[in-house]
Structures are given as C-alpha cells and as structure tokens.
Amino acid sequence: MCRWIAYSGTPILLSQVLFEPRHSLIDQSLHSRLGVETTNGDGFGVGWYAPDLTTPAVLRDVGPAWNNRNLQEVAHHVRSGLFFAHVRATTGTAVQQTNCHPFRRDRWMWMHNGAIREFHRLRRDLALAVDPALYAEIEGSTDSELMFYLALTFGLTDDPPGAVARMATLVEETGHRHDVEHPLQMTVAVADGRRLWVFRHSSEGASRSLYYSTRVDTLRALHPDAGYLREVSEETRLVVSEPLGDLPGAWNEVPENHYGVVEPGLDELHAFRPVA
C-alpha cells in the first residue's frame, strides 16, 4: 500500500516533517512499521499551498523518495501551513508520474492509502459513473485517482464528507455486484487550501493505520522540555499513516470508520458511513 502525511498549522519548512523526525516519511518509505509493505519506493509526491494562491503546487516523481535530490531541494526551501506528502507502493497499476499522489483539481488535493479490490474488474463500471465533464481530466490508471473524480462527481466541492460517503457506497455496491466480498480499503486526505478532511474506512472494518497528533497545548504540558513545540501554534495538526516518533501521548488512532475535519478554530471527529 502507501504511507502519507497531511499537515495543517503554523507554516514550516516541508523538511521539518518529511526528513527530520526519527520515523519521518522518508524513513517510512524504507522502513514502514505498520504498512502492508516495509518499502514504499514506487514513486512519491508532495503538494502544498502557498500564501495568496488558491491552487496548490504539486511535485511528483516515479523514483523512491529517499534519494530524490529534487525533493530534498524543495523540502528544505519551501514553507507552507498546509501540505500533503505521499510515498507509494503500487497495488498493481503502473509506476508512472500520473499515478503518483497527491492528485489535484483546481484548489483541491486528494491522496489515498488502500485499494479497490479486484479493481481491474470494477474499473469500467466505476469510470462510467464519473461526470463526463470531468472524465477527460483523469490522467492516470489508479483506483485512487478514480475515487477522487467520483467524489468530485458526487459533490466534493460542496460537501466533502457526503461526497466521499457516496463514492464509497458506489465502490462497495459495484464490488458486491461483481462478487467481491470486501471491495474498499481506504484512508483518504482531502484539502481545499483552508480545511483538511481525513477518512478511515474499509468494507471489512479493518482499515489501514491512521493517526492524528495530540493538541499542541496538551503536548507542551506533557513535554515542557520539547522546545520545538513552542514554535508552532495550537492550531497545528498532523495526520499520518503511522507516527513520526515515540513521544508519549503525541499520537491518537483515528477510530475505525470515522472522519475528521481540521480547520482554524475547529477540530471534529465523526462517524463515517457510506450512504446511497
């Protein structure tokens, strides 16, 4: 599968999250502890929002993240308050740039860990459900990008939780018609430049790992000697496929079949259920 990070909060250098933590995303690309695969070297991507720009920048490549000089150059010079990063382990689709996450349309970004089981059998039926006005924009061959465009079709720009729920319903109903017992496995992050939504769901109720960071004020009380915690605001949050370090009390598991919303002044966690 894959590993990913979504960051929202005080603008920081991307390298502070991607490279510096003990179990950073770059370390996870080589030594994942909680993923299906230990190594995630089938491409990578980062996407970030810059001040006064509504459309995020995206850098993607097919090589492994751990030795990409362009990624190091960008990460040590770009500062952002909302960014995504993803390292890929393909579930069967080609290793090519258009299959690397995150995916982008206008101000929206999307990344995914998981799979649509038997995707090669379900793909045609699912693709036919994409709005014809959007279909031509699909560049790659992954289930993840198709899920993004299905969510866009079902109203992602107006109601992200509802659109993702309707997308999940379609995938599961289509899978069941093709005798796939547990069609969908997903942890998803989606952002619009100001807000971040994260989802953890699977048809069998055994989703891939996903964690969110504890409130910064609580961490300061727990670890007054951790100086870097004084540098970020109490609005700062991280959502990750697996924890970036071993700081006690720093990480909380996103509950099974739940979604979270992160935006200035508001953090919420809700039950997630596919809907017709």
From TrEMBL:
CDD domains: YafJ (cd01908). Residues 2-276 form the Glutamine amidotransferase type-2 domain. SUPFAM superfamilies: N-terminal nucleophile aminohydrolases (Ntn hydrolases). The keyword Cell inner membrane does not apply. It comes from the Bacteria. Keywords: Glutamine amidotransferase. PANTHER family: GLUTAMINE AMIDOTRANSFERASE DUG3-RELATED. This is Class II glutamine amidotransferase. The keyword Transport does not apply. InterPro entries: EgtC-like (IPR026869), Gamma-glu_amide_hydrolase (IPR052373), GATase_2_dom (IPR017932), Ntn_hydrolases_N (IPR029055).
